[in-house]
Amino acid sequence: MSHNSFGHLFRVTTWGESHGPAIGCVIDGCPPRIPLSEADIQPWLDRRRPGQSKFTTQRQEPDEVAILSGVFEGVTTGTPISLQIRNVDQRSKDYASVAQSYRPGHADLAYELKYGVRDPRGGGRSSARETACRVAAGAVARLVLGPSVRIRGALVQIGPHAIDRAAWDWAQVAANPFFCPDAAAAARWDDYLSGIRKSGSSVGAVIEIVAEGVPPGLGAPIYAKLDADIAAAFMGINAVKGVEIGDGFAAAASLGEANADEMAMRDGEVAFRANHAGGILGGISTGQPVVARFAVKPTSSILTPLHSISRDRQDTQVATHGRHDPCVGIRAVPVGEAMMACVLADHLLRHRAQNPAHKDGS
Amino acid sequence: MSHNSFGHLFRVTTWGESHGPAIGCVIDGCPPRIPLSEADIQPWLDRRRPGQSKFTTQRQEPDEVAILSGVFEGVTTGTPISLQIRNVDQRSKDYASVAQSYRPGHADLAYELKYGVRDPRGGGRSSARETACRVAAGAVARLVLGPSVRIRGALVQIGPHAIDRAAWDWAQVAANPFFCPDAAAAARWDDYLSGIRKSGSSVGAVIEIVAEGVPPGLGAPIYAKLDADIAAAFMGINAVKGVEIGDGFAAAASLGEANADEMAMRDGEVAFRANHAGGILGGISTGQPVVARFAVKPTSSILTPLHSISRDRQDTQVATHGRHDPCVGIRAVPVGEAMMACVLADHLLRHRAQNPAHKDGS
Amino acid sequence: MSHNSFGHLFRVTTWGESHGPAIGCVIDGCPPRIPLSEADIQPWLDRRRPGQSKFTTQRQEPDEVAILSGVFEGVTTGTPISLQIRNVDQRSKDYASVAQSYRPGHADLAYELKYGVRDPRGGGRSSARETACRVAAGAVARLVLGPSVRIRGALVQIGPHAIDRAAWDWAQVAANPFFCPDAAAAARWDDYLSGIRKSGSSVGAVIEIVAEGVPPGLGAPIYAKLDADIAAAFMGINAVKGVEIGDGFAAAASLGEANADEMAMRDGEVAFRANHAGGILGGISTGQPVVARFAVKPTSSILTPLHSISRDRQDTQVATHGRHDPCVGIRAVPVGEAMMACVLADHLLRHRAQNPAHKDGS
Amino acid sequence: MSHNSFGHLFRVTTWGESHGPAIGCVIDGCPPRIPLSEADIQPWLDRRRPGQSKFTTQRQEPDEVAILSGVFEGVTTGTPISLQIRNVDQRSKDYASVAQSYRPGHADLAYELKYGVRDPRGGGRSSARETACRVAAGAVARLVLGPSVRIRGALVQIGPHAIDRAAWDWAQVAANPFFCPDAAAAARWDDYLSGIRKSGSSVGAVIEIVAEGVPPGLGAPIYAKLDADIAAAFMGINAVKGVEIGDGFAAAASLGEANADEMAMRDGEVAFRANHAGGILGGISTGQPVVARFAVKPTSSILTPLHSISRDRQDTQVATHGRHDPCVGIRAVPVGEAMMACVLADHLLRHRAQNPAHKDGS
């Protein structure tokens, strides 16, 4: 029940602060004999890395991962895989003002109320930098799942501007700085977000993660439901305030006739006529694509001064200068993919423990 | 990592099927010396009990709880509390047709794909009847939290019809069969849902749970965030497809200036000017009310026949006759309250383990 | 991390006090499609049942088990199996004196120091009666392991009187009231223990549990070693003060040449020339028989008055009248077997989660 | 349920192989505001470090610990503490022969049977080097327990040669290379072990760990007993084959009259007349010193060639040349102390979670 671990059989423990010497994670329970090197992890970290466009923070971190244990002669041994990323661009000298007051919308006050102490450098443990470890773990989780499971994410809304789902093209996701699957929307977002950025403001976003090829049977009633674990995994990402599976909140407004995913036999296989359920029924995967979304709030690190209080309980104001992230939701796309991968890998292992007849490719 | 347990220090394990001899739960880790009898639990079960209006299933279950262990001379002893509810209205004779085909939108197919077997009587383990155990556990969790923490729930939307939040009156919740805090909305819903019921259709709903008096500091970075645990707890309730904390998905559409919960000192205490965050920052409670919502899909148990397949992989149709629940979201209100209580009680214990200076009333 | 659960994937949660209405357990994670009825469990409970000879307490309990969930049409469904045993011979009226003082060597004082309250009836939660639930769970664990794994236990020492290991005959275990594999020793023990019983004294014992057919590979470095889990499982049985694997403490006195289990190929299979290690190396089973022992202290419930203190902190004396158990170690044999079965079943599931190529018969 | 973690609220996850770039651990759940620097940990590591006398392996490792996270301005922040030790003396070039055959008494074969692969360099994950991480974690656990809890260990038997308990002098433990509390025994052991060493043989040992000042109430029925957790913690140390609490196996040979720890009031406090129970009753600490022992087998890394098999299933022989450890039990003393500290710290946190009235100094 570690506070800083997730998963049960594919179990990840992360550690580190934004401005300490390094961050890292330990992956325990990874099956043996899986080919693994840094080259399998680094490309996923590079996708998440900041500073790749004007729309993400200009903080420069190479985020170079090193495998310190658990691999011998190029394959996993079944023992803990320790991954480490050295911090490079620390600049911790300028945290004095942050240390003396609480930024609204940040974890500053909550940490101090809980622990009576906090590391203010770059947000300390609450820094989004921690998500690099999730992405690294997700890269390993993908290898556990094998090539038959495909996990992809996309930004489907920035501020009030949603994509046109009819225009969805996965190939577009890599073609713009927003992970946007709708080329026309991406063009509009460029204008919109440029305005946000110049004004020193920020805006929220919605991310959608789709996992195809998920074998049926993953998840477990009643308190280890696949959708419940996905919900926890997504809600635990920094700044996330909402999670949906399948139709999500839209299901609340629909009728039973419209929401049912009817079935029929097709070429000897069970075929669904729709996927309102997002690939999960009763907490268990059905073989349909698993579809989930999460909403990210706008960061309150903005140019406009905000009313706040200081550590010595005086009224004050807080404004953010220097590096600035107009939409923290953008970089959450690879993080969401990674969390999906970790949840699925964990449930794959859990499933085959109890149900050894289960066939899978890993 | 039990599949059928939740919580870590205040830990609940539920068992039982809808049509077996009984259902029940074991609560482990409850602090000692808390006065407890069946009378502390029964009223909460009565609120969830079906058949109390024409808008919920007419299945008749007294849901009478018995305490089988963990209490001596009227107080908890710190040892496991075993709660049991005998099943009365079983009617398991009529499940033959359900056993031979898979109801769309239900867990029937998923269970068989996972386990190769399922108990079809009343949905077996996936029956909403299991939620009675959650409500019973939640009653004990409320006692652990003590009177300073107040947890209340309300239905805020049925189908497309949301309440007017300006008309919110907690006193109304007990005054209508919908747990609706807006008297005018409740009147409209009566008409609307009567139509749904007569046509044999069903509709979804949104439930909001508010916890006041939550001490600051509950929750823990990074993978035991209070909001992540609430998200899992809610998403694990039958038929739930979405979860929000505070502004939820609306936060995605907002700007940083609007979403920030500014602070100021007021009468020597930290005061927030808004609660967009729903009482949680960085995964840790701030002392503001914890506000969360979840969306329930419409049940696919409707009169209209739906296309499906049979166990022997033939096309078939499934329709629901007899008992019928036009809006399963209604009875989810006490369940959501109970899950919130359990999550908070667990985190209260977790918090004071690590932070013994924490003051609380329990 | 439930206080009253053990195992991770094959997970057992027990509840109940000696003098409440019932005791029971919930088994979570049992694989599906295993034929199971009360008749598979009851015989193991009958072996542990008290009152079967003059050498165990005369308390009469039928210990009749009922399956309340998790089984449908004679097979497990993969959902929680709730087992319950009603308490019959409660006689709780005579616990007043026990409630006012602390019996030396019992948990009375420790429970009150921990919880500030205790259930004094029959020892409450610390009663050996709880071990009936372990035996019931162990019966299910044996079915998970399948017929290729054979788990047997024997009493190998009573007081200072050890068996002659050269005379070991498993068939004798069922032929005397001591579970003794050495017929001559059993005859001597009858005299010895009759004397102990008549004098109102008590004596300790050593139990050995042997599991044959355990597949290699069970257990996991570093903190889930098979021997570490066996040690915890045995040390958690009431009155146990020591645990050994293989040669145990004798290994401390031996030289490396004598202690090594040399290997050679025999008929194409790996063959060991000895089993000093008790079937476990590096925390992982090797395929050799798993051999473990535990030492049970003599109960301090004896006729001779012992110095003690009362709840109101006065010097007092405590003596035990009525029912009396001259050697509580005897009935620990079926309990030890059950714990071994549960540990092995749990590790079988854990192993195949991470190592799907593992072949097993279940 | 991580394979490589132990503890629940004070939770330690270790990683690393003997011949990789580093080993380390992550401590999660440590209370905040505890002063901590490398200087608090290094002295304990130095005690365990090899090469300090002719009686331990001559492998030279500085075992210099670095704190990578979880500490800010000299105090713990409540977030994960990452500790790391670089490997220096790796010499991994000479593992080729080890890789091709299985050393009797080592984990070589077991790992391959489990995982189908192993890291043969220095024993890989099964190397005693991993225990350095336990010692580092134990140093932090001591700080959590505070100065009122004193944990000390001693070697009480080498081969067949036990100390004279009447001559026990804690001051002697630091005065000889054996952690021996009996000066005369230490002198005899020097001769004895020199002979063992010169002959290239090895011998077992027994270690005793005593924890004084343990507050009453630590531990929990039924499956989180303090003695059960100590048993698992000790049995999980490399080469351990037996564990005892209090009188241990000697209790099996004793009568109830002799084994009872009678009580009386003395100066207004509860006083015990003996401590046969080793400070634990019903799985819960009583306030008496917690006394536990464990037996270490002789390593089979000896000069005498032993029969074994090769990876390609041929008969072969294995002998150990070069570095040689005549009694691996010696260096197990600091490891046993560390495991005791970690178990007690974890149970302290667990206890105060459920029982907030508990007073402790931390």
Question: In words, what does this structure look like?
Answer:
Chain A is an alpha+beta fold. In chain A, about 25% of the residues lie in helices and about 20% in strands. Chain A contains eight helices and 18 strands. In chain A, the strands form six sheets. The first copy, chain A, has a five-stranded antiparallel sheet with strand order 1-2-3-7-4, covered by helices on one side. In chain A, strands 9-8-10-16-11 form a five-stranded antiparallel sheet. In chain A, strands 5-6 form a two-stranded antiparallel sheet. The interface between A and B is large, with 114 and 112 residues. Strand 11 of chain C pairs antiparallel with strand 11 of chain D.
List the chains of the largest interface with their residue counts: A-B, 114 and 112 residues
Question: Strand pairing plus helix content of chain A: what structural class?
Answer: alpha+beta
Determine the strand fraction of chain A and express it as a percent band.
15-25%
Uncertain segments of chain A: 358-362
- Give a count of the beta strands of chain A, DSSP E runs of length 2 or more: 18
Separation, N- and C-terminal Cα atoms of chain A: 27 Å
Question: Can you give the mean pLDDT of chain A?
Answer: 93
Please provide the ordered H/E string of secondary-structure elements of chain A. EEEHEEEEHHHEEHEHEHEEEEEEEH
Q: Cα-atom Rg of chain A, whole angstroms?
A: 21 Å
**Biggest beta sheet attributes of chain A:** 5 strands, antiparallel
Shape of chain A: globular
Spatially, the strands of the biggest sheet of chain A line up as 1-2-3-7-4
Summed up, the helix count of chain A is 8
Relative helix content of chain A: 25-40%
Oligomer: homotetramer
